[in-house]
């Protein structure tokens, strides 16, 4: 299991309860404003049992922030995260589908500015529910690929029509970092489960240089550290066949590492295997900072109705704690969420229920 392994991977340990932990809260847009308070309530609930003390700082980012201030990610938000916080929770952002001058995704910028090079997304079914048996971790490179957002549009001289181009960047340094953390996660799952396999996802048959470099460096990291990772299985899968197999045979996959775009698509798709995007968490991980972030978007169609699913955020809160070294507290959260899903009584509409966000939060809190 991944859940008990994050302590070994944490780059900082905040295991002492004597010093309060300061957590930045960035709800963003849409249902982010409804689910981030759930994460805060869960953390406050932990204080009495685990002796953890938390301070919270409300921070701004998102489309509404851009409309109000002209900046989607204010400098003040980054400055406070760097100077005062040990971790953060990020909700969701509502981004326009067409270009808006001056606007750029704040979560992409946040990952770059804080050096959050890995997006770790566990996708796991809960035993005793109707979901298929799934237990995989998708480790997504978080800082480059097409997400560097270097694009241009120009007029083709021959046809007189517009052409749009985007740069896909894959670097050896970033690939080495993401391959290493993916293998470390696989190694911890090996210790827990008795076996583990890393699957490198790429499209090097078409993108021989960019994806070819990703594939080559991942293999180099594995081969050059055989003494450490040799017991971990190693596979490669072209991304289109990966999608097919992931839905047909999810039980075949354990830890998946992928460039930014493929990892984004695979992890959102994998959420369908466990019921909803509303239950899938993630952690944006750097060498000295972690941001918990639910995998879902801002969901403007249900924003303000009080029916958004808080489970992805609550699980993301647990992942944040695990990377900060507080495994026991995180385990309490995971067990309470699993109990809620197993009972199949109090659930939001995305899972086929009629409960409100607050009713789900209250039920999980009662089980902690």
Can you put this structure into words, describing what you see?
The chain has 368 residues and is an alpha/beta fold. It has 2 domains: 1-119 and 293-368, 3-Layer(aba) Sandwich (Isopropylmalate Dehydrogenase), CATH 3.40.718; 132-274, Isopropylmalate Dehydrogenase (3-Layer(aba) Sandwich), CATH 3.40.718.10. Helix content is 41%, strand content 18%. It has 13 helices and 12 strands. It has a 10-stranded mixed sheet, with helices on both faces. The longest helix has 22 residues, at 172-193. It is globular and about 65 Å long.
Task: Itemize the secondary structure elements and their pairings.
Blueprint: H1 6-9, E1 21-28, H2 32-50, E2 54-58, H3 63-69, H4 75-84, E3 87-92, H5 106-113, E4 118-124, E5 135-141, E6 151-155, E7 162-166, H6 172-193, E8 197-202, H7 210-223, H8 226-229, E9 233-238, H9 239-248, E10 255-258, H10 260-270, E11 283-285, E12 290-292, H11 311-323, H12 327-343, H13 357-367
Parallel strand pairs: 1-2, 1-3, 3-12, 5-10, 8-9, 8-10
Antiparallel strand pairs: 4-5, 4-11, 6-7, 11-12
Helix pairs in contact: 2-11, 2-13, 6-7, 9-10, 11-12, 12-13
Family: Belongs to the isocitrate and isopropylmalate dehydrogenases family.
Domain Isopropylmalate dehydrogenase-like: 22-364
GO molecular function, one term: isocitrate dehydrogenase (NAD+) activity
What is the number of beta strands?
12
Give the overall average pLDDT.
92
CATH architecture of the largest domain: 3-Layer(aba) Sandwich
Query: How big is the Rg?
Result: 20 Å
Q: What is the name of the CATH topology of the largest domain?
A: Isopropylmalate Dehydrogenase
Q: Which ranges are low-confidence, i.e. pLDDT below 50, for 5 or more consecutive residues?
A: 1-9, 11-17
Query: What is the CATH class name of the largest domain?
Result: Alpha Beta
């Amino acid at each position: 299991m991944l859940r008990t392994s994050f302590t070994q991977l944490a780059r900082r340990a905040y295991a002492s309860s004597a010093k309060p932990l300061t957590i930045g809260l960035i709800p963003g847009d849409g249902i982010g404003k409804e689910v981030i308070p759930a994460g805060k309530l869960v953390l406050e609930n932990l204080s009495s049992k685990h002796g953890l003390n938390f301070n919270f700082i409300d921070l701004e980012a998102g489309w509404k922030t851009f409309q109000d201030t002209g900046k989607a990610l204010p400098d003040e938000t980054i400055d406070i995260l760097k100077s005062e916080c040990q971790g953060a929770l990020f909700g969701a952002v509502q981004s326009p589908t067409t270009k808006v001058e001056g606007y750029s995704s704040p979560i992409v910028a946040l990952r770059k500015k804080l050096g959050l090079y890995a997006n770790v997304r566990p996708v796991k079914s809960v035993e005793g529910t109707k979901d298929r048996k799934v237990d995989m971790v998708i480790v997504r490179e978080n800082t480059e690929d097409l997400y560097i957002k270097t694009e241009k549009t120009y007029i083709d001289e021959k046809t007189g029509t517009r052409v749009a181009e985007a740069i896909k960047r894959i670097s050896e340094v970033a690939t080495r970092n993401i391959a290493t953390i993916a293998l470390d996660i696989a190694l911890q799952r090996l210790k827990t489960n008795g076996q583990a396999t890393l699957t490198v996802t790429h499209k090097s048959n078409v993108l021989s240089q960019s994806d070819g470099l990703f594939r080559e460096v991942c293999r180099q990291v594995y081969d050059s550290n055989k003494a450490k990772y040799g017991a971990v299985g190693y596979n490669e899968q072209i991304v289109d066949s990966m999608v097919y197999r992931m839905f047909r045979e999810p039980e075949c996959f354990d830890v998946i590492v992928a460039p930014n775009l493929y990892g984004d698509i695979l992890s959102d798709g994998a959420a369908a295997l466990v019921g909803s995007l509303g239950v899938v968490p993630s952690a944006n991980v750097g060498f000295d900072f972690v941001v918990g972030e639910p995998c879902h978007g801002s969901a403007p169609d249900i924003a303000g109705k009080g029916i958004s699913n808080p489970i992805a955020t609550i699980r993301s809160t647990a992942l944040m704690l695990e990377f900060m070294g507080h495994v026991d507290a995180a385990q309490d959260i995971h067990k309470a969420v699993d109990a809620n899903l197993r009972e199949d009584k109090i659930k939001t509409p995305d899972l086929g229920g009629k409960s409100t966000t607050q009713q789900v939060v209250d039920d999980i809190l009662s089980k902690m």
